[in-house]
């Protein structure tokens, strides 16, 4: 019964080996000569002048989340675009497929308008 899971176990071990072995080889074979300059904090060529744990404005995170959200929704259109030609050639469900994507795009545009009206995209 468990012999069906053996390929999964091998896949996990091979994946771990591909991730862990280069790290271990770099740690074992690479030079390790720390000095004061290498251990000092570094920020874009300047000495760090603020605390690394300073608070960020929530708008940075809001813009990032909105970008990921809309980017992923647009990425759903690529598979649809590749198979839509097949639906048109078959002629059976082309209007249903087209209508469902138009509803998807309408929801996307409505969400974008709501975010715009609420000021989530305004940068002051």
From TrEMBL:
A molecular-function term among this protein's GO annotations: NADH dehydrogenase (ubiquinone) activity
EC numbers on record: 7.1.1.-
Membrane topology (UniProt): Multi-pass membrane protein
Coiled coil: none
InterPro entries in the record: NAD(P)H_OxRDtase_bac/plastid (IPR023043), NADH_UbQ/plastoQ_OxRdtase_su3 (IPR000440), NDAH_ubi_oxred_su3_sf (IPR038430)
Keywords from the UniProt entry: Cell membrane, Membrane, NAD, Quinone, Translocase, Transmembrane, Transmembrane helix, Transport, Ubiquinone
Subcellular location(s) per record: Cell membrane; Membrane
TM spans (from-to): 6-25, 60-81, 93-114
Domain of life, per lineage: Bacteria
Listed GO CC annotations: NADH dehydrogenase complex; plasma membrane
Catalytic activity: a quinone + NADH + 5 H(+)(in) = a quinol + NAD(+) + 4 H(+)(out)
HAMAP family, sorted: NDH1_NuoA
Physiological role: NDH-1 shuttles electrons from NADH, via FMN and iron-sulfur (Fe-S) centers, to quinones in the respiratory chain. The immediate electron acceptor for the enzyme in this species is believed to be ubiquinone. Couples the redox reaction to proton translocation (for every two electrons transferred, four hydrogen ions are translocated across the cytoplasmic membrane), and thus conserves the redox energy in a proton gradient.
UniProt subunit comment: NDH-1 is composed of 14 different subunits. Subunits NuoA, H, J, K, L, M, N constitute the membrane sector of the complex.
Family: Belongs to the complex I subunit 3 family.
Protein name: NADH-quinone oxidoreductase subunit A
